[in-house]
Amino acid sequence: MASESQLSEVLSEFARTMVTDFPIQAILDHLVERIVEIMPVTAAGVTLISPGVEPRYIAASNGDALRFEKLQTELEDGPCLEAYRTGGAIAVPDLSCEERFPLFIARASEAGLAAVFTFPLRLGNRRIGALDLYRDRRGKLSATSMKAAQTLADVTTAYIVNAEGRADLREASHRSREISLHDALTGLPNRALLMERLEHSLLRCRRSGLTSAVFFVDLDRFKVVNDTFGHRVGDEVLVAVGARLSEVLRPGDTLAHVSGDEFVVLCEDLDSPAQADVIVGRLDAAFDQPFSLSGNELNISASIGIAFTGKGRADAPEDVLHTADMAMYRAKRAGGGGHDILDLRDQHFASYQAALERDMHGLLGRNELHLDYQPIVATGDGHITSVEALLRWAHPSRGLVTPGVLIPLAEKAGLIPAIGGWVLQEASDEQSHWQNDYRVDDVAMSVNVSAHQLMSAGFVDLVAAVVSASTGRADQLTLEMSESVFVTDGERALIVLNDLKALGVKLALDDFGTGFSSLSYLLQFPVDIVKIDKIFVAGLGRDRTNRAIVAAIVQLAHDLGSTVIAEGVETIEQHRELAQLGADFCQGFYFAHPMPAVNIDTLIEHRVDGASQSLPKLATL
Ligand code: C2E
Ligand code: MG
Ligand code: MG
Fold first, then answer.
1. What are phi and psi of 303, to 5 degrees?
2. Domain range holding 16?
3. DSSP, res 93
4. Which is nearest to 585 in space by CA: 434, 384, 446, 388?
5. Low-confidence ranges of the chain (pLDDT < 50)
6. 485 and 462 housed in the same domain
7. Which atom of ligand 1 approaches the CA of 450 most closely?
8. CA distances for 546 relative to 348, 514, 553, 581, 586, angstroms
9. What is the CA radius of gyration of the chain?
10. Who has the most CB within 10 Å: 237, 253, 346, 365?
11. How far is CA 236 from CA 36, 133, 188, 298, in A?
């Protein structure tokens, strides 16, 4: 029998150990353990009851007690349920004379139970379960013991209700945190959660030496979807894309919807960056099938940028994301639907780019830009017919910055109209210089124009002003652009191109063959010159497929009334083959590297002198 002092000891121990965060199961385990120590019983059990559901919490001092607890729940019969229902204690001092609970008693007696005393777990009007004391011999419990047991049950209830309240609170705050970290439209993690995971991942990578990869996925022409089909369909696209991407990822990967049409995938703990190829292949494949939305079949593609982290590096999450974003931007500029990789481990690319972006402002005023010029020659005799102006930034501390890095940054910074305008003017001035000083008026000037620049307001006016101020003819200026000009708004691009043609300038399709749907654009584009990309030229002499492609491009261009320039000609074999295939002009290191204005001046001057009219000739043809 529990003495007063034992009871108060147990109660005060309860009070001490039930610290704020004591979990419910532990409270119950503690209760049954202590109660068998101070009560004249063989076992104790407790079950928390929630109507209509299986009990989530059961505690028992031994296997028998556990069996009896479960038996009552299973049979839906027994003193435990009765105490819970009535809110009063139940005493069954002798099972053999008890008429209530026949199902339970039949089974429990077989297992050796002789007496049971049950106390409701109650607080005010609320009841949450019952405490059962089991004995293997018959006999009553003293009034003091009964009272002590009920007191323990009451105290336990108070703790449990408290713990439940805390759990509810935790769950509510967890829920609201989940909401604040997820995107409402797609239900995917948002930027904040992505950054949190990225930060953890960077810390882990630094310790483990493993690599993480960040894939920046940006839908191509999403604005067109929104404008054409409305925002409701646009939203459906985003949800559907989110679902498709989730399907191709591993369980531990994070897919976040960071803004508008941008998704980011974080794949942690890759054994090698090569694994990223497999993942990007799966991400690409997610866009293979068209999306069926509100009765529309939509073909959606995405540009993907990839950045890696890892190996003892201290990258900031923002830098990694920025790098992946830049890689995506490069993929987008290449025509969309592809991917590009910037590897943070090889180069401090992100901080490099951030610094360049900062330094870019005021660039024109500091005279840090210049143009190199690369001759373009007639395939047959190698004489110079035109030169291509190629932009360079001589950064005071970082050395030469190539246009591949500079142009995308300038586009992002909104500096392309200013820089592009400078390039046009500078190239035109150089050409005027040959005309005025060397009387050479048959060397054309090619200037590259990015898609962004072509579509920027006032571009046609700018070209018109440069052309009218120059001493040469308009058709001595060629504007080179890639197929990516059609990616964002093909119809508008065609209008701009026609306006440019009306000025009399020539238009060249640069890097032909590397974009997508090339042929359909070639048919629509009022193109004067097709520049076969160096990828195909590099394969000449080695690979019959490349020869067939180059032959087909030359044929098609000629059929459409365009001339052909082969880019990236590096060897005599390539030159020979291009001549056989009928490419009109060649450009490449085999003839001349891009060179500063003074050197090109010398070449042009010699041309006039007749001393060296041309670059390498085809002696063997
Ligand atoms: P692009 O118009 O296709 O220019 C040709 C690129 O190929 C140049 O690279 C040139 O240096 C390189 N190249 C020439 N011959 C060979 C060769 O035989 N082998 C190899 N492997 N490469 C050769 P660069 O100067 O780095 O320019 C890269 C791209 O940047 C250009 O490609 C062009 O798209 C763009 N770009 C250059 N200047 C400007 C500019 O003023 N404005 C704009 N918007 N883009 C520019
Ligand atoms: Mg070019
Ligand atoms: Mg090119």
1. -100, 140
2. 4-178
3. S
4. 384
5. 344-348, 516-518, 608-613, 617-621
6. yes
7. 44
8. 36, 13, 10, 12, 17
9. 40
10. 237
11. 61, 59, 14, 11
**pLDDT for the residue 494:** 87
From the alpha carbon of 511, which atom of ligand 1 is closest? 3
Q: How far is the CA of 511 from the centre of ligand 3 (A)?
A: 4
The pLDDT of residue 619 is 40
Q: Is residue 184 part of a domain?
A: no
Q: What's the CA-to-centroid distance between 390 and ligand 1, angstroms?
A: 6
Task: Give me the pLDDT at residue 612, please.
Answer: 44
> Which pLDDT does position 312 carry in this prediction?
52
C-beta of 450 in contact with ligand 1 (< 6 A): yes
Ligand closest to the CA atom of residue 531: 3
The alpha carbon of 449 and the centre of ligand 3 are apart by a number of angstroms equal to: 11
Residues 441 and 534 in one domain: yes
- Which atom, in ligand 1's list, is nearest to the CA of 587? 15
Q: Which of 390, 466, 540, 589 to mutate to test the pocket of ligand 1 (most atoms within 8 A of CB)?
A: 390
User: How many Å lie between the centroid of ligand 2 and the Cα of residue 342?
Assistant: 23
In a domain, 615, yes or no: no
Q: From residue 457, how far is each of 249, 369, 483, 567, 611 by CA, in Å?
A: 41, 23, 20, 30, 45
Q: Which residues, in sequence order, are bridge partners of residue 306?
A: 215, 341
pLDDT tens digits, residue range 69-118? 999 989 999 999 999 999 999 999 999 999 999 999 999 999 999 999 99
511 lines ligand 1 (CB under 6 A): yes
- State the distance from the centre of ligand 1 to the C-alpha of 560, rounded, in angstroms: 25
pLDDT on residue 39? 86
Query: Of the residues 313, 345, 377, which one is the last residue of a structural domain?
Result: 345
Q: What is the pLDDT of residue 348?
A: 45
Q: Are residues 332 and 359 in the same domain?
A: no
The rounded Cα 58 to chain-centroid distance in angstroms is 45
The structure tokens 């990578």 sit at: 205
Our mutation pick for probing the ligand 1 site, out of 373, 407, 426, 448, counting the most ligand atoms within 8 A of Cβ, is 448
Q: Is the CB of 294 under 6 A from ligand 1?
A: no
Please give the distance of CA 442 from its chain centroid, rounded to a whole number. Answer: 50
* Shared domain check, 163 and 250: no
Instruction: Check if 400 has its Cβ closer than 6 Å to any atom of ligand 1.
Output: no
Our answer on whether the CB atom of 568 is closer than 6 Å to any ligand 1 atom is yes
Provide the mean pLDDT of the chain.
85
pLDDT value for 599: 92
Give the C-alpha separation, 281 to 411, whole Å: 28
Which residue's CA is the closest to the ligand 1 atom numbered 21?
568
Give the largest Cα separation in the chain, rounded. Answer: 130
**Helix residue ranges, H only, 478-543:** 485-502, 518-524, 534-538
Helix (H) or strand (E) holding 407: helix 403-412
User: How far away, in angstroms, is 518 Cα from ligand 1 center?
Assistant: 20
Q: How far apart are CA 57 and CA 24, in angstroms?
A: 8
Q: For the chain, how many structural domains are there in total?
A: 3
State the distance between the two ends of the chain, measured CA to CA, in whole angstroms: 117
Say if residue 336 is in the same domain as residue 409: no
